[in-house]
Each structure stands twice: as C-alpha cells, then as structure tokens.
Inverse folding.
C-alpha cells in the first residue's frame, strides 16, 4: 500500500466527519509521512506503524465525537460518542453499552419518578373533583409532601445527570486510550 492509497482509504473512512475536520486530519497525516521521510523511514514502515486506515479512522472518529460530547452533551452527541467507542471493538460493546444502558435507564427512571410525583397534588385534586365524597385533606397533605420531596429529588437528579455526562466522557476517553495502547494517567 502506498501513502496516497492509505490517505485515500483514511479519508473514505472519515466521511462522517465534517469536511474541514477531515481535511485537517489528512493534512496532519501527510505531514507525518513527510517527517518520517525526512527521517529516512520508508512509506511501508510508516503505514505499518499506523495500522489499518479503517482502525485508525475508528479511533479518530471516537476521539472527535468524545470531544464534541464534551463541548455539548446533546443526546445526539452522546449517542455518537458511545457508538464510536463501541465501534473500536467487540469488548467495548460489553464495557461501554452495558453499563451505559443500565445507568441511563436508572437516571431516566429517577427523572420520570420525580416528575410524576411532582404532579401528585394535581391528581388528588382531580380525584376530589370527580369523587367529592372521597376527598380527604390528609391525601392532599401527603400529595403535597411527596411533591415537595420530588422537587428535591429532581434537583438531585439534575446534578447526577451532569456528573454522569462528565464520567461518560472520562470513561470513553479511557476506553479509547486503552484501545490505542496509550498509557493511562491517573
């Protein structure tokens, strides 16, 4: 494989990136080849040290999407980062998707519970309007108490969600570093 063929395959594998980002990456690798050539390395040695363009593209995509998630943790960016991390290998499917689904399900359930419990006084009042004979001030008091506690829960879940975003980024970066074979700094 030649340098041009390697860069062509890499560019093709990076087609999901914005054009400007993709062009910058290709320029960086062209420069890498020039530096290696000035150090009297052969093209095939450089290509061998870089690995397959497909695997290199997966690492670059994962890194890009993780950085995008750090900038703006939208659902789309988060899912892209998770999916790119999973794409690095089968074990990542287990080590990323499994814990992520479990944690996201738990956090989503907490959001749902908090919002539903906040609405309990409304449900009690609707029930009182429909069944006037069954109205109890105690029921309304309990509903308002649950609603107040749920507002505190909602605040806590908000902070848990922010922390989850931060930990997800760190975990994905850790995972990408392991796949790349980089040393992990504590």
């Amino acid at each position: 494989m030649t340098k041009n063929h390697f860069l062509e395959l890499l560019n093709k594998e990076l087609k999901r990136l914005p054009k400007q980002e993709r062009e910058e990456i290709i320029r960086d690798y062209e420069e890498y080849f020039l530096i290696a050539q000035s150090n009297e390395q052969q093209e095939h040695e450089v290509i061998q040290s870089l690995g397959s363009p497909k695997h290199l593209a997966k690492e670059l995509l994962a890194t890009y999407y993780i950085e995008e998630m750090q900038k703006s943790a939208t659902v789309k960016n988060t899912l892209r980062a998770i999916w790119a991390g999973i794409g690095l290998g089968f074990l990542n499917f287990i080590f990323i998707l499994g814990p992520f689904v479990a944690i996201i399900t738990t956090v989503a359930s907490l959001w749902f519970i908090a919002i539903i419990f906040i609405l309990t006084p409304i449900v009690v009042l609707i029930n009182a309007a429909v069944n006037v004979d069954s109205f109890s001030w105690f029921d309304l008091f309990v509903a308002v108490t649950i609603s107040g506690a749920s507002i505190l829960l909602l605040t806590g879940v908000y902070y848990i969600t922010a922390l989850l975003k931060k930990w997800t980024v760190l975990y994905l970066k850790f995972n990408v570093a392991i796949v790349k074979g980089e040393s992990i700094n504590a």
Notes: The chain has a mean pLDDT of 83. The longest helix spans residues 137-180.
